[in-house]
Design brief:
Shape: globular
Strand order of the largest sheet: 6-7-8-3-9-10
CATH architecture of the largest domain: 3-Layer(aba) Sandwich
Structural class: alpha/beta
Distance between the termini: 52 Å
Strand content: 15-25%
Number of strands: 10
Radius of gyration: 20 Å
Order of helices and strands: EEEHEEHEHHHHEHEHEEHHH
Length: about 270
C-alpha cells in the first residue's frame, strides 16, 4: 500500500482492472478497467442499466468482483468490507437518500464521524477527560467545516425527515464528508433537485474537490450531462456493462459511439446531416 504522504495530485488513487460481474444470465460489467487519479472529478455516465451502480458497489465493497481486481492507494481491496473501506478513506452517497428522518441534521452528520472515535465504551460512559475533548474536537469539525460548507446552519437542529428533499441531499453529503474521505463516490447527487438546488450541489462538489482544506477526489455518477461536462476532469462511459470510452468531456461529447448510446443510431445520423 502506498503511504498517504507519497500520493500527489495526478497519481493513481483508484485502479479497477478487468472487473467482471454477472447476475444469472445478465452481464452487468464485462471486463471494466478504470484509473481515477488523485484530485480529479471523474464522472461515470451511461444509459439506465449500463452497470454504473454495480461499478460503484464494487468500489465501495457492497459487491465483490467475480473476476478482476480493485486497487485503492496501491492496495488490493477486493475482499475488504464496506466499513473497512470507509476507514481507508472511501465514502459514498446513494441515489436514494439514506438518512435517519427522526434524528436532527447535526446528529445525522455526526454518525459519519464514528470511525474516527478512539474512546472505548468505558471512557465514553463517563464522558470525562480524553472522551470529552475528543467529542468537542469532532463536533467542532462538523459545525465549523461541514455545516458551514453546505450552508445548513439554520436547520442544524431540525429533524431531517421534516426537511425538503434537496436539503436532505445536503445532509447525506455532509455525513459522507464527516468521514473525512480521500475518495468520495456520489451516486446521482442531482437526481430530484430543482435548478437552483442543482447549481448549489455542483458548487459544493467543486468546493470539496478544489479547496485546500478538503481536496477530495470525486467519482460522480450522474445523468445531468450539462453538469457532468462542466465540472468533470474525465468522463467514463458505460453501455450494457461495456466501456465505450474514458476521456475528457470534449472527447466524450464528440465520440460517435457515445452519441449513439444516448441518442440511438437514427438520431446519430440526423446529427451528422
Amino acid at each position: 500500500m502506498v503511504a498517504e504522504s507519497e500520493l500527489k495530485k495526478g497519481d493513481v488513487l483508484l485502479d479497477l482492472k478487468d472487473i467482471h460481474m454477472t447476475f444469472g444470465k445478465v452481464t452487468a460489467l464485462a471486463g471494466i478497467s478504470l484509473k481515477v487519479r488523485k484530485g480529479e472529478i471523474h464522472s461515470i455516465i451511461g444509459p439506465n442499466g449500463a452497470g454504473k451502480t454495480v461499478m460503484m458497489n464494487c468500489i465501495n465493497g457492497l459487491y465483490h468482483p467475480q473476476k478482476g481486481d480493485v486497487f485503492y492507494r496501491g492496495e488490493r481491496v477486493n475482499h475488504i468490507k464496506p466499513h473497512a473501506r470507509a476507514k481507508l478513506g472511501i465514502a459514498r452517497t446513494f441515489q436514494k437518500v439514506e438518512v435517519f428522518g427522526g434524528m436532527t441534521v447535526l446528529d445525522n452528520i455526526r454518525l459519519g464521524r464514528h470511525i474516527h472515535y478512539k474512546s472505548g465504551i468505558a471512557s465514553g460512559s463517563v464522558y470525562l477527560g480524553k472522551t470529552a475533548r475528543e467529542e468537542i474536537e469532532h463536533r467542532t469539525f462538523i459545525e465549523e467545516e461541514i455545516i458551514d460548507l453546505l450552508e445548513i446552519q439554520q436547520i442544524r437542529s431540525k429533524p431531517v425527515g421534516m426537511l425538503p428533499y434537496g436539503l436532505q441531499k445536503r445532509v447525506e453529503l455532509g455525513r459522507a464528508l464527516a468521514l473525512r474521505p480521500e475518495l468520495l463516490i456520489l451516486d446521482e447527487p442531482l437526481a430530484g433537485l430543482n435548478l437552483e438546488e442543482v447549481e448549489d450541489m455542483a458548487r459544493f462538489i467543486l468546493d470539496v474537490n478544489e479547496e485546500k482544506r478538503w481536496q477530495v477526489t470525486c467519482i460522480l455518477v450522474e445523468h445531468d450531462m450539462g453538469v457532468v461536462m462542466d465540472i468533470s476532469d474525465r468522463v467514463f462511459v458505460l453501455n450494457f456493462g461495456n466501456m465505450i470510452m474514458d476521456g475528457t468531456p470534449e472527447e466524450v461529447q464528440n465520440n460517435p459511439e457515445v452519441i449513439k448510446a444516448y441518442l440511438g443510431e437514427e438520431d446519430l445520423y440526423a446529427t451528422r446531416a
